[in-house]
Amino acid sequence: MDNNCSERSMKPFVIGRKNWLFSQTPLSAQATAIIYSIIETAKENQWDPFPYLIFI
């Protein structure tokens, strides 16, 4: 057993983490993290992220 799929889905989140250091407020960093999480969840379930964001 391995967790390669989970690790690959988190890669954009980890790369973006350093960019969040430059967020204006902690709330903006939190909002960015939530959006990343929603997008990666959609990708993991093989859904198109943009229509999914519009739907929710």
Automatic annotation (TrEMBL):
<dbReference type="Pfam" id="PF03050">
    <property type="entry name" value="DDE_Tnp_IS66"/>
</dbReference>
<feature type="domain" description="Transposase IS66 central">
    <location>
        <begin position="1"/>
        <end position="30"/>
    </location>
</feature>
<dbReference type="InterPro" id="IPR004291">
    <property type="entry name" value="Transposase_IS66_central"/>
</dbReference>
<protein>
    <submittedName>
        <fullName>Transposase IS66 family protein</fullName>
    </submittedName>
</protein>
